[in-house]
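Please fill in the sequence for the structure shown.

STRUCTURE ENCODING:
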């Protein structure tokens, strides 16, 4: 259905989220407890073509919910997984809070968005261990999601279970200061046997075979 839509079909709208008490949530970074559910409304953008004003500036902060670096998105499990790669207090001064990654799930039937995973501030990105800066995301046939790190320092493909546990799948040891060497586009083959992933520059693609098993 989406592929049949023309360039002027539909409505371009922005997210407005509110908590259980009906209070407006101005920035998604304010939510710090995984499992938190927010109610979703959609506010139409007055000028979808941004002829005079950028779309992000057409609605006031009281009418929409902002978030820093919304990048990866993947449709699965009846909704959309959405990634906010990081947030800093200076991104939305006086409002936003610090984190190194959020994974949200938007349920269109219930008109809700739920925080599924939160990465705290990574104290030392150059040391292997903590993860930060999730970017691309896809659903794993073995449970949970697969994330591509695009943070500071060491980068991985990261698995995350439905319970919020994270674990490394692969580490990117390719380094070249002149290129963007981040992991991108992790996705399983239709039969679930091969995980494909890329390094953005110079353009490597990897086919990673298991053994794979269900994660809890």
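FILLED IN BY: designer on duty
SEQUENCE:
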């Amino acid at each position: 259905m989406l592929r049949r839509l023309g360039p002027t079909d539909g409505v371009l709208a922005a997210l407005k989220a509110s908590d259980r008490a009906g209070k407006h949530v101005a920035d998604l970074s304010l939510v710090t407890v995984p499992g938190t559910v927010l109610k979703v409304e959609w506010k139409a953008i007055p000028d979808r073509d941004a002829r005079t004003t950028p779309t992000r500036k057409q609605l006031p902060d009281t009418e929409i919910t902002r978030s820093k670096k919304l990048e990866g998105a993947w449709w699965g499990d009846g909704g959309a997984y959405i990634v906010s790669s990081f947030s800093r207090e200076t991104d939305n001064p006086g409002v936003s809070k610090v984190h190194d990654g959020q994974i949200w799930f938007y349920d269109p039937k219930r008109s809700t968005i739920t925080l599924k995973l939160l990465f705290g501030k990574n104290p030392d990105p150059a040391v292997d261990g903590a993860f930060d800066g999730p970017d691309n995301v896809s659903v794993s046939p073995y449970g949970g999601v697969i994330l591509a790190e695009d943070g500071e320092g060491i980068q991985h493909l990261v698995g995350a279970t439905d319970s919020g546990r994270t674990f490394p799948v692969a580490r990117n040891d390719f380094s070249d200061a002149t290129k963007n060497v981040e992991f991108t586009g992790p996705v399983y083959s239709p039969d679930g046997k091969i995980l494909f992933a890329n390094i953005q520059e110079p353009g490597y693609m990897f086919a990673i075979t298991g053994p794979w098993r269900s994660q809890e």
